[in-house]
C-alpha cells in the first residue's frame, strides 16, 4: 500500500497525545460549567487524564514517573505505555494495555477513513498524477536512516522504546545483549515487545544476537541505547 507523506505525521505518538487532549479539552469546555476554584493547570490535567481514560491519580502518577529516570530513558513516551511499563501488578498492566488497544483502534479507524478520503480527493482533483513520496521531513528521517538499537532481556524500557520507534516507522537493527546466540530467546523478546513478523519480513526490523558488539562499542548500561553510523563511525543517538 502506498504511504503518503502527509499521513506519516499523524503516526507520531506526540501528535496522538496532542490530538487526544485537544479534542477532550474542547468537549469538556463545551459541556462542563466552569469551576472558578479550579486552576487552568488542574483543568488541563483533568482533561488530559480523561482523554487517555485515566483517573486524576493515575495522571499524577504518570507525571511523577516522567519527572524521574523514565523521562531520560523514554522521552515522549505516551501515558498508557509509561504506566503499563511501570505497573506494579498484572491487573494494572492489563488495564493499561486494554486502554491503549482501544484508543489506538479508534485512531487507526479515523486515520484510515481520512486516508481513503485523501486518496479519493487526489484522484478527483489530480487525475493521472501520482502523489509524491518523501516530501515530509519526518518521513525522510524515519525511512532514510537506519539505526542500531541495543536491548536486553528483563528490560521493560527496552521493549517500550523498540515499540515506540517501530510505530514511528523507524528502520531498526535490534541487537539483544546477552542472548548467547539462542534464537528462541530473541524471538520471545520480540513477541514480548509487540514486534510483528510482517515488520521483520518487510526489512523494517532485523533481529540480531549482540555477539559482543555492545561491549565492543565501549558502551555501558543502562539500556536501551540507539546508535547511528556517521562517516563510518557509530554514534549514540539516545
From TrEMBL:
<protein>
    <submittedName>
        <fullName>TIGR03759 family integrating conjugative element protein</fullName>
    </submittedName>
</protein>
<keyword id="KW-0175">Coiled coil</keyword>
<keyword id="KW-0732">Signal</keyword>
<dbReference type="InterPro" id="IPR022293">
    <property type="entry name" value="Integrating-conj_element"/>
</dbReference>
<feature type="coiled-coil region">
    <location>
        <begin position="89"/>
        <end position="116"/>
    </location>
</feature>
<feature type="signal peptide">
    <location>
        <begin position="1"/>
        <end position="18"/>
    </location>
</feature>
Amino acid at each position: 500500500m502506498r504511504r503518503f507523506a502527509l499521513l506519516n505525521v499523524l503516526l507520531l505518538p506526540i501528535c496522538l497525545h496532542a490530538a487526544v487532549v485537544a479534542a477532550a479539552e474542547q468537549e469538556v469546555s463545551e459541556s462542563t460549567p466552569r469551576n472558578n476554584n479550579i486552576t487552568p493547570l488542574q483543568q488541563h490535567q483533568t482533561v488530559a487524564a480523561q482523554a487517555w481514560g485515566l483517573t486524576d491519580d493515575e495522571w499524577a502518577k504518570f507525571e511523577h514517573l516522567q519527572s524521574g529516570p523514565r523521562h531520560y530513558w523514554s522521552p515522549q513516551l505516551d501515558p498508557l505505555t509509561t504506566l503499563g511499563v511501570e505497573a506494579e501488578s498484572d491487573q494494572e498492566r492489563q488495564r493499561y494495555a486494554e486502554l491503549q488497544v482501544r484508543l489506538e483502534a479508534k485512531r487507526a479507524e479515523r486515520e484510515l477513513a481520512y486516508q481513503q478520503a485523501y486518496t479519493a480527493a487526489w484522484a478527483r482533483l489530480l487525475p493521472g498524477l501520482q502523489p509524491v513520496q518523501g516530501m515530509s521531513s519526518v518521513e525522510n528521517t524515519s525511512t532514510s536512516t537506519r539505526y542500531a538499537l541495543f536491548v536486553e532481556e528483563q528490560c521493560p524500557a527496552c521493549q517500550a522504546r523498540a515499540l515506540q520507534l517501530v510505530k514511528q516507522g523507524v528502520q531498526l537493527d535490534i541487537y539483544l545483549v546477552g542472548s548467547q546466540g539462542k534464537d528462541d530467546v530473541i524471538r520471545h523478546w520480540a513477541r514480548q515487545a509487540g514486534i510483528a513478523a510482517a515488520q521483520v519480513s518487510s526489512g523494517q526490523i532485523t533481529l540480531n544476537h549482540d555477539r559482543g558488539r555492545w561491549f565492543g562499542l565501549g558502551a555501558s548500561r543502562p539500556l536501551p541505547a540507539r546508535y547511528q553510523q556517521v562517516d563510518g563511525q557509530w554514534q549514540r543517538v539516545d
